[in-house]
Amino acid sequence: MIDIFHYFYINASVTDVFKTISTAEGLERWWSEKAVGNPLLGEHYKLSFGATYNWTTVVSKLIPNKEFELTITEANEDWIHTKVGFVLSTRDNTTYVRFYHKNWKESNEHYRISCYCWAMYLRVLKRYLEFGEQVPYKDRLNV
Questions:
Q1: For a tag on the chain, would you pick the N or C end, based on fewer CB atoms within 10 A?
Q2: Beta 54-63 vs 83-91: how paired, if at all?
Q3: Span 29-55, average pLDDT
């Protein structure tokens, strides 16, 4: 299996970071166009990325203010059964984020594009939490 990792700091409280990565409202601020679901272990999230990209996930890890993971159950074929997660800790009055997207079957073109896209989405997450920037969904991969 092949994985994607991004480790970085966010100058925001771990509580604010956790809320933004684990709630439907938070996910809509930096990742999906629309999200429905609650941060509860076993809960299903419906994520929309435009008219033809409606995905389903299940919360597979949840430790408040420490870990949050979604297992993809309905999506593009390459993403099914992959796990998108965050491990959070506090360091020097900031939040240290260890992001992963695990269990890719192969290092194909979609994997390589997703590596780039995750970096862009995570930048939007960081800028939202640090500066309150809100980027319209259609522009998130171009900022």
A1: N
A2: unpaired
A3: 93
Which residue in the block uniquely carries the two structure tokens 């771990």?
14
Cα–Cα distances in Å, from 141 out to 32, 40, 119, 121? Answer: 12, 29, 9, 7
Burial of 91 (0-12, 13-18, 19+ CB in 10 A): exposed
Alpha carbons 54 and 33: distance in angstroms, whole number: 10
Give the distance, in angstroms, between the CA of residue 38 and the centroid of all CA atoms in the same chain: 14
Q: For the chain, how far is it from start to end, CA to CA, in angstroms?
A: 30
22 closest CA partner among 32, 12, 7, 8 = 32
Round the average pLDDT of the chain to a whole number and report it: 95
Output the pTM of the full model: 0.95
Cα–Cα separations (whole angstroms), residue 80 to 38, 58, 88, 128, 138: 20, 11, 24, 28, 24
For the chain, the residue count is 143
Non-local CB neighbours of 134 within 8 Å, separated by 6+ positions: 29, 128
- Alpha helical stretches, state H, the chain: 14-22, 24-30, 109-131
